Amino acid sequence: MADADWGTASDFEDLNGQVAIVGVGESEHTKASGRSDLEIAAEAIEKALNDAGLTPADVDGIMFNRGAGSLFDAAAFHAHFGTKHDIWESDRGGGMVWAGTAPYAAAKAFRNRKAKVIVNSFAVAWATQRSSMTGGPGKFHAEEQFKANLEVPFGFFPQPVYFASIARRHMHEFGTTSAQLGSIAVSCRRHANRHPGAVMREKTLSLDQYLKRPFLADPLRVEDCCLISDGGGAFVMTTAERARDTPKPPVIAAGVGQARSKSGSYWSQQPDFTATPQVFCAPKAFEMAGITAADVDVLALYDPFTIAALMQIEDMGFCAKGEGGPFVEGSRLDFDGGALPYNTHGGMLSHAYVLGIAHVIELVRQLRGEAASQVGNADIAVYGGYTGHMASTLVLRRS
Amino acid sequence: MSRFPLPDVEWERTQPYFEGAVVGELRLPRCANCAGYNWFPPERCYYCDSDDLNWEACSGQGSLFSYTVVNRAFVKPFKTVTPYVTALISLAVEPRVRLVSYIVDCPPSLLEMDMPLDVVFRPLPFFDEGALFAGEAPIVVPMFRPLTAGSAS
Q1: B139 contacts A273? CB cut-off 8 A
Q2: Using CA atoms, how far apart are residues B48 and A314, in angstroms rounded to an integer?
Q3: ipTM of predicted assembly, 2 dp
Q4: How many whole angstroms separate alpha carbon A249 and alpha carbon B139?
Q5: For a tag on chain A, would you pick the N or C end, based on fewer CB atoms within 10 A?
């Protein structure tokens, strides 16, 4: 086994019970829409505020991300809603790992009396931008100089290539099969077929169809890779006390964790090549929430590729390392009767490519009992974020 | 600035890697304190934190840690290059070093995980006839091929 110290978890204070998610909203998820990411984010925020029974004047905190996607800050908020009041800002929000850690930053802001109602949003217009190559998921990697010199010229670019080589090594070390990776894609597609907002709502996928599809970068097929779409999401957070007055049942943040790999975003150089930093942060988040993996009723994982989901399932302790293949096989991830209901909205593979924010929204809907593919008696839900060299874990529970 | 997808061979952090390839040497930063080879080139040794790192030539023998056959060009410059095999190569002198390069002189069907490999020095495929930078002075880089009895370097 590679060095056990290839990554580290952040030392987070306890937030269990301090933050509630009281409103969620999603834009339409589409192929190229011609809209800007700010317009899309605004649509999601309007819907989230409606869902929370709040008005724009109630919002005194906003979270976004500078690295990718929409930069919906206080100025953008005022420009859209015609408001003028003071709004606390944090750039430690958005999607990806930050969709999981936003409640942690919110808890701090609530404690320090910086804000009472915080909106976190994330949107991308990458389907629209793709034709002009002005943005998109590959941009960061193409511009990073070590990658530009030591990976890109050698064809190790973009992300499907990274994860194809990880998948092959996982297969070699643990005997993981194409059919097992395919099971993840098929469960996600089945869930998307049942979800009114999913990009892949009308397109079914069987395991036989999956196995007959050509390789994009073997052993990955197109169906192993996330969509590219335009879309966004937002969720509204407040303190657990304030949440008692909101129209929908609040969902409580019970545990949170964050970790990073020391080899940065150089997947090629990560000593433990077939693992994610979930190994470091999931145990911390579970401990904070006072749960074990066995207590989780529904799981949502940041899933750019089937193999990225498979590794996180192992690394979060839902099964032993290397046993993810048999664990996900067949319909074991399905919402109805699966051993571990997973990405019940379809995930980034089949719902939409909004980088995790829709995952958190789906979990909130599951815990409220209003999901399209509702898991029976869902009390505990977990989001796993995995972006580049970072991972995050968010445990949510029904209030 | 490099011209995508070409490397900036003059960037100081990786310059000796490309200079070595021109003269047929695989050069890597080696730690004077613990003797470990480091990759990607760090400011301080990954293993012992020493800052006494020097570029040295080393054996190009290694093994196939992982690979993928890329069948579709994800970006335009690779259109004339696909299908190709891009791989991670674990070096025999320092298994902790994982180089990224092409596997050449071997049909994909004959590739086997962990198979022994040896370095060769070839121009990047973007200078081939019909490719994006055809006609320009080619950039030579380390690539890898199956190790055979006669190819030990």
Answers
A1: no
A2: 31
A3: 0.97
A4: 62
A5: N
